[in-house]
Structures are given as structure tokens and as C-alpha cells.
Amino acid sequence: MNSKVSDMTLRPSPPRATKTSIFGGLVGVFIELYDNAVYGFVAGTLAVVFFPSNAPSTSVLLTFTAFAIPFFFRPLGAAMAGSWGDRIGRKRVLLILITLMTLSTGLVGLLPSYASAGIAAPILLVLLRVVQGFAMGGEPGNGNSFLAEHAGEGRRGQVVSYANAATFIAMLLGTLFAAVLTAALSTPDMVSWGWRLPFLLALPLGVVGLIIRRLADESPEFAEAEVEGQVTRSPLREAVTSRETIRGMAIAVVLPLFNSSGYFILFIYMPSFMKNEMHFTAVQGLLVTGIMLAVGTGAVLYAGRLSDRVGRKKMLATSAFVMVVIGFPCYWLLTHGSFVLATIGAVLMSLCFAGTNGVMQVTLAELFPTRVRTVAYGLGYNLGTAIFGGAAPLVVSALIVSTGSTWVPAFYLVLTSAVAGFTALRIRETAFEPLKR
């Protein structure tokens, strides 16, 4: 039999409604990561606009503090929006979340500066970031569960990896936008109005995303559970009283350590670090990040498809332990002062990160049954992200200031990779089993 015909027989193309639903699951992830990317890429400018200080390092530290605060509201968003998703359906909650994310991101671009509004300016920035944190907390559990439940057997890794690729594309868009603005505008223009443009772009992006999500179908897994009367009235209480679910939530806290630290160190913190500590130009820092993201987009898609064949466990453990081995040498290349060497080191680390990132979300979705999937997955994942991810730029910045060592990010990456790798060795392989009911 022709191999192409055989492949189509074994893995039929999803109907149009399912493709629309899958695309609908991606758009919120895109906007979430676009916002985080933009904030990181213009952090130096935001430091001047909202936290003026005679010491630039202090302004940057305050800016990353504002970046970190919302991540501690993510578990609240995960608990509330996850419970809603398990009670009323993934689609309805995803519509609420994308509305909150779009408005809070777009309104950042309309905020007054510290010079015109005083202390009210950074307070308003933090309040909007808190709303974003709530929405971001609800997005992973609902969005990635929605994708996994639409994917069907044998292609969950592939489908959920689309969301991971969307995060890279979102960050790449933010990087390119920031690079163009930085190169095209003078520093006074960037501080005066240029920084607003990437945030305002979230408004039309969000409207398009909202329309797409309204056209999407509800998750077939949830719809079937609803018909069969298997929807629980208290998903959060059930999740925290089940020994099996609690164990899964503990794994969801620790397993993404490298995923969280890698994302925030490599893509959010790195442009600012390269400029302030390594004395690259702002455009060079953004270009290195852009190249990492371009390579990573293809790598996460390949990793997701490969995990459907070889399993999640092998992909996660291998990627984490390879980072342990190459982390310090690659970081040396990154800090050597050469743009070419920095790019090589960054790309190699990005490939390791993609091997984990492309598989992580589908692995977490497969840990939990449908009736508590969004709340258990979201709460465990966001607790880990808040502790080890969102605070990473702040912790790393503070340690660099206190120790004077620019090697702090490398130690952070290698340590979290090692913990994640050993955790991956202890999980059960789920790639070849149906989703839990």
C-alpha cells in the first residue's frame, strides 16, 4: 500500500470544525506570550518610563519586580478559571480569559508615565499586570487541555505542540517589533511614545482571537463527560482531596522547572542582560533572541511529533540532561563578547529548551482525568511557574547585583534542568494511552 495512503488511513485529517477549534485554542496562548515577550524586550525603556532612578540597575530591578508580581496571582487564576473550565466547559472560560488578557495588555499602552502621573503610573501598571496574571493563570490548564482533548489518539503531542510553536511565534513577533522600534526610533522617542505601540497591537490581535474562539467547538471530552453526568460540581475540592491527583499536581510543579526557567532566562531576561551586563547593543540582543525563536519554532513542532512516536518521558529527560551538559559551555559563548559566538550558544540552548517545551504541556494534560483536568493541571503548573519562572528575572538580577557574577543565569538554568530531568525519569509514560476519564 502506498505509504501516504497508509498514513492518511491511520491518522486522518481532522474535520474543519476541529481545525477551527484547535486554532481557537492557540490564540490565547499567543497573546499571553506576546505580552510577556513585549514586556521583557522593552524592560529597559519601561524602567525609565515607570521607575526613574539615578541607578539604572535599580530601575531595571523594579521593572522586573513589576513583571514578577502578577505571576503570584496565576495560581488564583488557575484555581478559579480551572474550576470554571471543569464545571461549565473549556470554551466559555477561554472566551473570558482572552477578553481579560487583551484589555489588560492593550491598556498598558495607554498608561501615563511616572513623569506625568507620579506614583499612580507604576501602581496602574502593576494592577493591569495582576489582571494579566489572573488570565494567564487560567489559560494553560484550559487552553492546552482543550487542544489535547480535540487532538485524538496518536497525535496529541503534535497538536499541543502547535501551542508551543505559537508561543515562539508570539515572542518572535514581539522581538522583531521591539528591534524595529529600537533601531528606527531615537531613545527620547522610544521613551516618549514608541514603547506603547507593541502593547496597543494586542487590541486588534485579541479581537481576532475572540472571534476565532467563538467559532470553536467545545472539547469533545468535556461534552461527552457532561452528557454522561460525569462533570463534578466541586472540581477544586476533588482535585486537592485525591491522592493520585495531588501526586500529579506535585509533578506539575516540579517537572516544568527547566521549561519555566529556560523561557524566562533565555527569552525574557536575556535581551536586557546582554545589553546591560555584556554591553551588546539593544538591537544585537534582540537579534540573538529573534534567531533563537526562529529556530525554536521549528524545533518544538518536531519535538511534539517525535514524542508521539518515542514517548514524552524520553524527550523530557534527554532535553533536560543535555542542557546540564552544554549549559555552561554555551553560556560562555554567549558572554564572550562576539555576536556570532553568542548566537551559536543561544541557539544550542534554545534547541534543548524546545525539546522540553514541545512536550511539556501535553504531558501535564495527560496526567489528570477530564473531570478535574483544567484545575489540577493549571494549579500545579502555575504554582511552579510563579515560584521558578516569573520570579526568575528578579532573582537573577538581584543575585548578579549582590554577587557581581554574570554567571548566575547559567547556574540557574543548569540547576533547574537537572531537577526537571530527574523528575522526568520518575513519571509514567502516557503518550500511548487514551486520556484519563
Report on this model:
- 81% of the residues lie in helices and 0% in strands.
- It has one domain (17-424): MFS general substrate transporter like domains (Growth Hormone, Chain: A, Up-down Bundle), CATH 1.20.1250.20.
- The protein has 22 helices and no strands.
- It is an all-alpha fold and 437 residues long.
- The protein has helices at 3-10, 16-41, 43-50, 56-68, 74-88, 90-108, 114-117, 120-151, 156-184, 187-194, 196-200, 202-215, 220-227, 235-241, 243-254, 257-276, 282-310, 312-334, 339-365, 373-390, 392-403, 408-424.
- Helix 2 (16-41) runs antiparallel to helix 12 and helix 9 packs antiparallel against helix 19.
- The two termini are 36 Å apart.
Could you give the topology of this structure?
Blueprint: H1 3-10, H2 16-41, H3 43-50, H4 56-68, H5 74-88, H6 90-108, H7 114-117, H8 120-151, H9 156-184, H10 187-194, H11 196-200, H12 202-215, H13 220-227, H14 235-241, H15 243-254, H16 257-276, H17 282-310, H18 312-334, H19 339-365, H20 373-390, H21 392-403, H22 408-424
